[in-house]
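From the thread on structure requests for the teaching lab: each student submitted one protein with a one-line request. Submission from student K.M.:

"Model Multidrug ABC transporter substrate-binding protein from Geotalea uraniireducens, tokens only."
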Amino acid sequence: MTTFLQSLLIAMRALRVNKMRALLTMLGIIIGIAAVIAMVAIGAGASKMISDQISSIGSNLLLVIPGSTTSGGMRSGSGGTPTLTYDDAKAIKAECPSVGEVAPTVRGTAQVVYGNQNWSTIVMGTTPEMLTVREWPLVAGRNISQSDVDGATKNCLIGQTVADNLFGDLDPVGKIIRIKKIPFTVIGIMDKKGQSPQGQDQDDVIYVPLRTAQRKLFGSQFPNTVGAMMIQAKSAEVLKKAEEEVTALLNQRHRIGPAREVDFSIRNLSEILAVSEQSSKVMSMLLGAVASISLIVGGIGIMNIMLVSVTERTREIGIRIAIGAKQRDILLQFLTEAVLLTTCGGIIGMVLGIAGARIVAQLIGWPTLISLQTIIIAFGFSAGVGVFFGFYPARKAASMNPIEALRYE
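Reply posted by the TA:
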């Protein structure tokens, strides 16, 4: 321990004597560590943002949309033909044991008016299960009930963006708004959701009972059809099984055989989340690997300067050996100096990296995530660079012949 402390003191004194050279030597390590921390923080922040946005839709979700069909030789695009019905949704809920909740939807855009305020927004007809499927709590009022759906009542839930634009500081619950000139009573306000993965404002929406939307707002020549269905599996473990059960049931209900084109599509949102997270991780690793090149360049600079230092201090090494210093003492002295250089550079780099990540977060509104694990790895890596690139110069100093070293001019 005493030998190590002596080596540390000698190393610190050597760095103080050549402050500018030490700073320039550390520059590569500083840039490398700062770049690694900033890049990993930005990549992790992006991954979390994507994950949060996809998770905000709901968990364990399947999205069923109408598929394309062929009529008279003409193929419609995906979702272009109303092939799903409210009865399909009821059947899925009743006959698929892995399915928890089903929320069919019909959507459109409408101008909404309250007093002298008006706002164009998405109006979605749905059932009470929607808030459960979307894991979307209310901040005031009550949910749409099944009696609202069956009776096609003119009640509605509104998102935070609609509430802000129509009511400002007023309490919307109980107020009457007009959707397509039809009066609706606001019975509840949904909590804030934020942006969707596609960048859309999820709070800019009004939910009305499904039957109301079908019969009074968005009349169709197919009155029982729905635009899509959001299905929540009972757990993540049975999500794949739920998808298979829904596919089999819809094939049976729509009489789809081997020779007939499937008229619906099922999208697994959990798989989309997994793919997005994996892509973000790969991007973070790529950015970290690119930034690590700076550390290698910095390490080579450390080795170069340490070799110069060994040459400059040849007589000092000879004197130390002559008065009793052993090879391991010389080795430890120069190795400590190299590690001290990279460690100091690592600490400065960490501070700059964290500051850089925070500045990026402020400037472009991009979240950054700085984990303790990243800091520890970066710090350990900088110390490892010192050991790796400092060993050869230290070994060269330790293996000097004391007589030749004392004769060195």
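TA comment: The longest strand covers residues 99-114. Residues 1-53+275-407 form one domain.
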